[in-house]
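User: Some background: our group keeps a shared notebook of sequences we're curious about, and every so often someone picks one and asks for a predicted structure to add to the entry. Today it's my turn. The entry only has the sequence so far, pasted here. Could you supply the structure so I can complete it?
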Amino acid sequence: MFAIFKKEMRAYFTSPVGYVYTGIFLAAAALICAFTTIQRASYDTTSYFQYMLFSFIILIPLLTMRLFSEERRNRTEQLLLTSPITITGMVLGKFFAAFALFSATMFASLINLFPLVVYSIREQKSATSGAHIGLAGAQVMGCFIGSLLVGAAFIAVGIFISSLSENQLTAAVITVAAIAAMMLAGIFNTYIGVTWIRTVLDWISVLSRFDYFAYGYFDYAALLYYLSISGVFIFLTVRVYEKRRWG
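Assistant: Of course. Here's the predicted structure to add to the notebook entry:
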């Protein structure tokens, strides 16, 4: 698995993909921060992270579109299938490579919010005698963890879709559509009166489970949900390649 991880991390930065993704991510984070916090003169970071989640609709497919599609297009897929590494290890290696780059850019984007957190802590200390993390600090920590979980789920969806197509553009477009559906399901849910459809859309929606993180709370039910989504799509990707190996 580690060999696949190193190979994919190297591939991100021996091609334009890693640089384009990182540049777009950090530029989007800076612009969103400017319009949601600095311009409003507020240290409430909830809107910042919610808009960042919507940016994942475009950003995550940039990470995942090539992971398996490129192997099929370059006819190197058979080398992976006949290598000593297990299929599960191969899939996990690619998943963790994409997640590592995603996590690194998420962490780098927190530089935008550092002054807000410091100001919030100072304000909280001046209001009380004890040392507290402050409102912005709790929000940033909760939203950061929630964003990592949402990103992991979307990356798992993306690598599954990439495993089904040898065309990177096709994989990217379908991944955009799938992530957009998961993001917008909760919004459309309020306009539907059929109970069972509302139940399905509520299960699909990722935004509704992000609310607790936005308020600085750690929601174990949401943690289980996001990890389950990641696990299901990683499992489906493994099944796709097991079928190809023995098919």
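Suggested note for the entry: The chain has twelve helices and no strands. Residues 129-133 have pLDDT under 50 and may be disordered.
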